[in-house]
Amino acid sequence: MANKTTVALTQDQYKEMIQTIREGGIGFRKNDRIANALVLEANLGLRIEDILNLKLNDIIPDGDRYRLNIVEQKTKKKRSFTVPFPIYQYIKLYAMENGIGPDERLFAISERNVQKYLQKVSGYLGYDNIGTHSFRKFFATEIYLNNDYNIVLVQQLLQHSSVAITQRYIGITSEMQEKALLGHIQLL
Question: For residues 169 and 188, what is the distance between their CA atoms, to the nearest angstrom?
Fold first, then answer.
């Protein structure tokens, strides 16, 4: 993936990638561990290195909800946010089914191994420029589209330092901005 910009997955690509990873294909075996890690990246918006270091004990009860407190590896920023109950259940079930204790890493695998595996799956499916970050970009794009194009919300969820970074991240180009402006003309 060096020197290539990853792209965000579409809904259909996301579903196809996860299903293919769960089933396996020519040149690669099924891998539920990687599938589950990528599902969490796509649903929490964390970077893969933070997902791979998660432990069940990192998610703590907070009244009638659950909270995840981490320090992001890349930025060293503290991050605290609510984990929706269905995601907590998903994680807990995964840990129980795989005999993973509360203090153990949920995904004992390296980021490099996930990237190499994902490269095989992407090639098998005929997708270009897909990497683990495509799942975080999928998260960002879906949040943006499903929340009235609220770029500030996406910026906060990703912990970007500026809206401009978030706009580049999800692919809002000046060309798209110009098209939106042209489509909105309301001269009287």
Answer: 36
Rounded CA gap, 17 and 124, in Å? Answer: 10
What would the mean pLDDT of 140-157 be, rounded to a whole number?
88
Judge contact between 107 and 58, C-beta under 8 A: no
Decide: 74 and 22 in contact? Cβ < 8 Å. no
Token pair of 174 as six digits: 């000046």
* 73 vs 53: CA distance, rounded Å: 9
φ, ψ dihedrals at 71, nearest 5° = -115, 120
Is 4's pLDDT higher than 80? Answer: no
111/160 Cα distance (integer angstroms): 22
Mean pLDDT of the chain: 89
